[in-house]
Amino acid sequence: MLEVIRACWALTFLSFFVAVSGTGGGFHTWTLVVEPKSEDCVYEHYEAGHDFEMKYEVNRGGLLDVRVVINGPQNTLYDKMEFFNRADAANNDKLGLVKIKIPVSGVHSICIDNIMSRYTPKTYTLSIKGESNIKSTLENAKLEHLGPVVDSVIKVSEDMDGIVRQQHALRVREQIHRDTQENTNYRVQLLAIIEALSFVSLNVLQIYFIRSWFADAGTRRRV
After folding, report:
1. Do 124 and 59 contact (CB within 8 A), yes or no?
2. pLDDT digits (tens, 9 = 90+) for 59-113
3. Which CATH superfamily is domain 28-131 in?
4. What is the dihedral of CA 83, 84, 85, 88, to 10 degrees?
5. Can you give the residue ranges of the GOLD domain (predicted)?
């Protein structure tokens, strides 16, 4: 009975802790609007040996291309160009996914490059995984009897992060498809208007030339 009461108190404490402070190991998400011929950066401090994980996507803008550069204190850790409008990608789930181990402690920059675009601003989403503080905090408190509960809460937290990322990816894809459809509809309407104007213009020109031809023919007969 005592163990059940302790487990209930532990679960209540952990729920309150997660609700108030958030899951330290969750993903921090930024939405960046980068103007043409420019770049935008996010700066984070990481310790050596940290497993860095990031997911980036292009929400809208032009060819949905993006160049991501991750610079450490000493050298460049990641530099890659991606196109998110490729329907024939071998594995779309791995597109825009970065997993690297931080070699040196210090401030790292994650930069989004839109230099290739001339006129179109692009909207990007970055989801960067933070370090988990829940388990270390409870270990410092020496709550050994909460071990299984802590592991369960951390696992649920990681699963929830995965679900949130999947939902966000689905929303981004839906937005991309909607933008593509609206752009296609706009082009179809524009082409239809141009075609109608061309047809009317040709008819007007035909009437004008026919009237001119009959007018010239009548003048010649009178002469």
Report:
1. yes
2. 777 777 888 999 999 889 999 888 776 554 455 566 788 889 999 999 999 998 8
3. GOLD domain (2.60.120.680)
4. 90
5. 39-130
